[in-house]
Amino acid sequence: MDENNINQPEGAPVQPQYAPPPIAPQPESGKALGIASLVCGIVSLVFIILPFIGFIGSIIAVVGIILGIIAKKQGAGGAATAGMVMSIIGLALCTIFYIACIACANAVAKELGNNTSSFADEMSRLLEGLQ
Q1: What would the DSSP string read from start to end of 72-85?
Q2: Rounded Cα gap, residues 106 and 48, in angstroms
Q3: pLDDT recorded at residue 38
Q4: CA angle 67, 72, 77 (to 5 degrees)
Q5: Is the Cβ–Cβ distance between 39 and 60 less than 8 Å?
Q6: 90 phi and psi angles, rounded to 5 deg
Q7: Which ranges in 47-77 belong to alpha helices (H)?
Q8: Do the beta carbons of residue 21 and residue 30 sit within 8 Å?
Q9: Count of C-beta atoms within a 10 Å radius of residue 39
Q10: Which of 8, 21, 34, 51 is in the most buried spot, having the most CB atoms within 10 Å?
Q11: How far apart are CA 45 and CA 39, in angstroms?
Q12: Nearest-angstrom CA–CA distance, 89 and 82
């Protein structure tokens, strides 16, 4: 009996042995982190146009900056650099627009507060005239 045919019954045809298929190369982790940094930068730039939730864009931008730094240390190329640049721009603009929205809301609230008191005075005068 042949050594290759140990598990086969007598008279059965010999099955050829195949090698397993080669494993596909995995992307480098630095490259994947660079792409993740780039996506975070783009998403943080999208959050600029959404008032009062711009702080979420700032958080995403910080994550993008951290991922970009790690990717650059692992030797990633252009995607990591682009992600870091977009994340830094996104962080700056999200912060500026968030502060501007807070300032505008504060100014509107202050103006409404001033007009509300004069409106109340006018209403009390009208009610006194009706009595």
Answers
A1: HHTT--HHHHHHHH
A2: 19
A3: 94
A4: 110
A5: no
A6: -60, -40
A7: 54-73
A8: no
A9: 17
A10: 34
A11: 10
A12: 11
Per DSSP, 16 falls in state P
Q: Dig out the tokens for 6 from the structure.
A: 């140990």
DSSP class of 59: H
pTM over 0.70: no
Burial class (CB in 10 A: 0-12, 13-18, 19+), 91: buried
Rg value, the chain, Cα: 33
Tens of pLDDT, residue by residue, the chain (131 residues): 455 555 666 666 666 677 777 776 665 667 889 999 999 999 999 988 877 677 888 999 999 999 999 999 988 888 899 999 999 999 999 888 888 888 888 888 777 776 655 666 666 776 777 66
